[in-house]
Design brief:
mainly alpha, 4% strand, 2 strands
Length: 134
């Protein structure tokens, strides 16, 4: 169902799981591109994998996130496993992004976070608003 952006109908539409996955796929790649330009792809890959490993017990679907020096892929999520609600997806990725920010801050003393925060925080808030709408 396509709805014109900014209309009342758009505000009433709740995101499907596929739309939430697509949203976070793009956001995680945006983060990847910004941070890898600052600290290198191999280090970003390591940090993503560390963050996923820490969160996979609470959010098992994160184990399907594929990370390599080329970037991040969410293609395996939702295939053959239990159906995830948009809220479950949002919570998992919100936790992942928060943990990534913690790792970036610890590594680069805020340099990475200062670059990322203004670009990422508004998008996470947008996702929260869309998930919360009824």
């Amino acid at each position: 169902m396509k709805v014109a952006p900014g209309t009342k109908e758009e505000k009433k539409v709740r995101w499907s799981s596929d739309l939430v996955l697509d949203f976070y796929s793009k956001l995680l790649m945006d983060i990847w591109e910004i941070v890898s330009a600052l600290i290198g792809e191999a280090i970003v890959e390591l940090l993503y994998k560390l963050a996923i490993r820490k969160l996979v017990e609470k959010h098992p679907f994160l184990s399907s996130v594929k990370v390599s020096e080329e970037g991040v892929s969410l293609e395996g999520i939702g295939q053959g496993g239990p159906h995830l609600t948009p809220t479950e997806i949002h919570r998992g990725f919100h936790s992942l992004i928060t943990h990534l920010f913690d790792l970036f801050s610890a590594l680069a003393e805020g340099v990475v976070s200062r670059e990322l925060f203004p670009k990422v925080f508004p998008k996470v808030k947008e996702a929260e608003r869309m998930i919360a709408q009824k």
